Amino acid sequence: MDFVIRRATAEEYDTLGDITAQAYLRDGLLDFGESDSYLGELRDVAKRAAAAEVLVAAAEGRVLGGVTFVPSGGPMADIARPGEAEIRMLAVAREARGRGAGEALVRACVDRARSVAGCAGVVLSTQRAMHTAHRLYERLGFVRTPARDWNPVPELDGIMLLTYELTL
Question: Could you tell me which of 139, 39, 140, 36 has the C-alpha nearest to residue 89?
Fold first, then answer.
């Protein structure tokens, strides 16, 4: 399938928000299903786009997936240190998986990071159950950084996000 990677348009925010939320829900990645407070964050693409760069993979006028690229700090950064970009909320629609859209979105983020002055690396967080994503990151040269693993909801034990980094 041919697709392009580009910035999301405001008209695509709702579609991408739904793709992102559904990817997390259908893959069982939200602890509380539809009532999970993070679901609102996943759906709120406009908020992400105001604070970072939201990219989509699109084909024939249809959004296949997207990712949030945080070039350097700011409100969307969870784990990035000075000199690091961060990748957040990578999601591909179920019917578009296995066609290279996720890989193309990650590669686009890495390319963008290389163009950011002073950026020496790219970091990301992922859930333990995201095995397909782990294989993708490792294939692209990301390495696990267990010392940076973290719990986004400290009051709930057992929710540990794994971290990866790529040195540019």
Answer: 39
What is the C-alpha to C-alpha distance for residues 98 and 94, in angstroms, rounded to an integer?
A: 9
pTM over cut 0.85: yes
**Amino acid 25: pLDDT:** 80
124 φ, ψ (degrees, to nearest 5)? -160, 160
166's enclosing H/E stretch is: strand 161-167
The candidate with the shortest Cα–Cα distance to 90, out of 5, 3, 2, is 5
Contact status, residue 52 vs residue 66, Cβ threshold 8 Å: no
Q: What is the mean pLDDT of the chain?
A: 90
Question: Average pLDDT for residues 44-71, to the nearest whole number?
Answer: 96
Task: Tell me the C-alpha distance between 39 and 133, whole Å.
Answer: 19
Question: Would you state the pLDDT for residue 167?
Answer: 98
Q: CA angle at residue 92 from 86 to 98, to 5 degrees?
A: 115
Structure tokens at 55: 């990219």
Contact 24, 133 (CB under 8 A): no
Residue 59 has pLDDT above 90, yes or no: yes
Q: Contact 31/49 with Cβ under 8 angstroms?
A: no
